[in-house]
Automatic annotation (TrEMBL), chain A:
The lineage of its organism: Bacteria, Pseudomonadati, Pseudomonadota, Alphaproteobacteria, Hyphomicrobiales. The keyword ATP-binding does not apply. Keywords: Signal. Residues 1-20 form the signal peptide. InterPro entries: TTHB210-like, TTHB210-like_dom. CDD domains: TTHB210-like. This is TTHB210-like domain-containing protein. Pfam families: TTHB210-like. Residues 68-108 form the TTHB210-like domain.
From TrEMBL, chain B:
Keywords: Copper, Electron transport, Metal-binding, Transport. This is Plastocyanin. GO terms for molecular function: copper ion binding; electron transfer activity. The keyword Transcription does not apply. It comes from Rhizobium azibense.
Amino acid sequence: MKKLFLVPVLILDSSVCAIAADEVAKAPPAAPYQQVSKLVKLPDFLPGMGQLFVDPATLPAGPFLAYDHDGKLASTIYMLPTKDLNPDKSFDNLAAPGGNVDHVDVYYNAGHPGVEEPHVHVVLWHVAAAGEASVAK
Amino acid sequence: MTIARREVLGLGGGLVAVLSLSQRDVWAEEVVEIRMQGRADGSHVWFDPIGVLIKPGQMVRWTNFNPGNSHTTTAYHPANFGRPLRMPESAKSWDSDYLLPGESFSVTFTEQGVYDYYCVPHEQAGMVGRIIVGEPEAHGGWMEAVAASRGLPDEALKAFPTVEEIRANRTIR
Ligand SMILES: [Cu+2]
């Protein structure tokens, strides 16, 4: 249990050096970010992701900033509709305000309110793999 | 107490008749539960069961068992976002609106026929369901609505269990 806690703290320390990361390190992030569950009907805390914030102007790709129960930034998530992954479209220069990335997950999502079409989640984890437990439930 | 019991025992064949009658009543009154479910990572979402056969007057209750998503149960009916009619014309349409985890929505079905419905945010992911009420007549127009595929995503059309499957098994998962 102690180990699980220590690892994310170390990662956070290193990411705090970046100014942008500092502004979003704690929930709620400043405007234009808004709580996703206030924009669409979704649970406040999504198991596996956490509490999400997004700038509505950047939908559907995001970034979505995902926080754990203590309001600490756990990941930055991009949601890319599968129909847009084609020769005529691309996603360029997406913001990455969360700073240091420990590892990346990519997986298919069938859709949810907010991004209803089937899409891919690209998750930049700002915590070590063990730190994912903080948003598991 | 004892007398009553003896009387009951003495009824013989009559008792069997009463029992089977009341069992049928219980079945007709039983609420049919449909769970709205999804994998933890959101990669797959579905109704469970996806197909049910019920009796006229029976109630169906949908409950969202998916902790990380919201779902709806929405009839294919022009009253719902102008969607094509895939239910008996004379029956009332329904739309639960978004159900958060743990929330439920119920509908009592009185008209016989085939009812198709979907989940608003997950129709493209094939989250649809079919309810058959009673014993619809083969040529009463109830198959025509089901045959129409206009305006539905392929994933939804592929997902419906067939009328035959549902009638044969009553519950399709
Ligand atoms: Cu759904």
